[in-house]
Amino acid sequence: MTDHTIYSESREIQTLYRPQAEQLGMELHHRSGGLEGQVDGDICQGRFQANPAGPYCLVIWHDITFLRDMDFSEYAMTDYACLTLDESPGSNPVPYGVQPFTMQEGNMVSLVQQAGSVINRIPAGSRSRTRSICILPGYFMELENQWPGQVVGLSDAFRQPWPSDIAQAALTALSTFAPGRPGQTEFLIKAHIDLLMARLAQAFSALVQSHEPSHDRDLVQQVKAHIRSHLGGDLSIDRIAQSLYVGRTRLCLAFSRQTGTSLARYIREQRMDRARHLLSFTGEDIAWISRQVGYVRPSSFSAAFTRETGVAPIAWREGSNCIEQAPEIEAPAVTKAGHESSSDFT
């Protein structure tokens, strides 16, 4: 596949269209502020257009007729919100994989697509004609950082029915995107998406705020579960926020309101608790233990442990005097080298 580079697109955006085009045997070329392609082969026939709108948004239009049965795979590096106008013939509904989706106005669908691969079996003779807006977590995180408290739960709105006026506005926005239409600049497309998200945020803000305490509790439980299962990996706050599809500001505020402590402090405590346990009840060396709690360098782990407990790891082990009497426990799997960040280890 050949195409000109669109400098604003991210790797996450690229995975939403490049592999799909390659499966169809389609070459993409830079036109009209985006990438366009046509295919006329033994597998399928049709047209495709992708218009990135900044690093976190993408508009895709395609009209493809499949001439053979095909296992069509889609892949995403991260969860993303998606709004799709399905204009396929009624006998050929678009497959939405295993993701729950919400029917909006007419033949418009919204959903939150989970990261990973999805394979759809498409029978010969099927025609797929859709227009979609794909929005990555970074978009919502940027909005929340810029407008704290005004876009709370915006990504969750893609899992719920929209008010009729918002759905109609979304239909209008999607209808403006068509291949070859002049003036479809990245700036204009982004403006359409921003306006639609602003109206959606306004419509859902009162509902979200009325349920905020329960939402916060659920979010904190998800955060704690994520931390427990990733103690040896990247637990930077930005990474956790992205993994849970929530803005950094909302994540930190919800956690501090529900627990009375900061998220960074909680992460440190959980890592040190695990380290104390491993030091007391296993005979593994310090380098191995440091990796299990997310430190690349044993020296960094030793410094953090000493700062947290007042004694060095070796002194803790010698003082605990528990290894011989320790109950049998399942040692955690050896992880790859962890990641350190100033937000986690200050």
List the keywords:
single chain; 346 residues; alpha+beta; Arc Repressor Mutant, subunit A; 2 domains; eight-stranded antiparallel β-sheet; 10 strands; disordered C terminus
Strand order of the largest sheet: 1-2-3-4-10-6-8-7
User: Which residues sit in consecutive blocks of at least 5 with pLDDT less than 50?
Assistant: 1-8, 322-346
Q: What's the β-strand tally?
A: 10
Rg value: 24 Å
User: How many structural domains?
Assistant: 2
Largest pleated sheet:
8 strands, antiparallel
Q: Could you explain how this protein is built, in words?
A:
The chain is of the alpha+beta class and 346 residues long. The chain folds into two domains: 1-210, no CATH class; 214-345, Homeodomain-like (Arc Repressor Mutant, subunit A). It is 42% helix and 20% strand. The chain contains 13 helices and ten strands. The protein has helices spanning 11-14, 18-23, 137-146, 164-175, 186-210, 212-229, 237-243, 248-259, 263-281, 286-292, 298-309, 313-320, 342-345, and strands spanning 27-31, 34-40, 44-52, 57-66, 70-76, 80-86, 101-103, 108-113, 116-122, 127-135. The strands form two sheets. Strands 1-2-3-4-10-6-8-7 form an eight-stranded antiparallel β-sheet. Strands 5-9 form a two-stranded antiparallel sheet. Strand 7 (101-103) and strand 8 form a beta hairpin. Helix 4 (164-175) runs antiparallel to helix 5 and helix 9 packs antiparallel against helix 10. The protein is elongated and about 75 Å long. The protein starts with 10 loop residues before the first helix and ends with a helix. Mean pLDDT is 80; it is low at 1-8 and 322-346.
